[in-house]
Amino acid sequence: MRPSHLLPVVVLTADQWDVWTDPEPMLDDCEDPRKLRLFACACRVWDQMPNQLLRDAVELAEQYADGETTDKKRKAVKEKCEARRSGRKPAAASATSCLSTDASTGAWNGPFSAATAEAGSHEGPTWVATRARQADLLREIFGNPLRSMRVESEWLTWNGRTVLLMANRIYDAGAFGDLPVLADALEDAGCTNAELLAHLRGPREHVRGCWALDLLRDEPNSLAPRFTAS
Length: 230
Description:
58% of the residues lie in helices and 0% in strands. By secondary structure, it is mainly alpha-helical.
């Protein structure tokens, strides 16, 4: 949900989405709650979070996005962060936003606070560069939602489900350095999609929620946490 004070609305084309350097209008095209929460987490500013509680909050938010912890735990840690947050510092606000009840709110507010923490204001070259990096992270997680991407079932079932099993392992271990190896296996399985292969092989920043990796996994696109125990 776009905050009401963010006007005017900019409607992007698919080609503009590929090169835009401000995440605000891009977020209008992003709906998956899991990916929105992972985007907020990816924009974290570790160097300004010496407090272990804040670091734990971001990591818990990642787990919650993937259904690996409970809503009760999310609420408890969020309340603890809010109680201990001093002077509403931007870095602390960015971490707390990752645990927002509404993932869309967290995706709008968390990265904005993180950029403020990095730049010290809402303008200047550091602000612009930080927001541009966040736009790249949004593309890393969502790909281009204005352009469809097809995955053939034969790629995933090839050679005893090698691609699928490898993709699951890489994601679970956070072993993003192995993505080029996954690309090789995918190509051996018959994939000729240049965009998909290039993303897996590219020297870019990869994070949890990577769109290319998600396409090749078992259950990457759930719209709510899968963990249901209290």
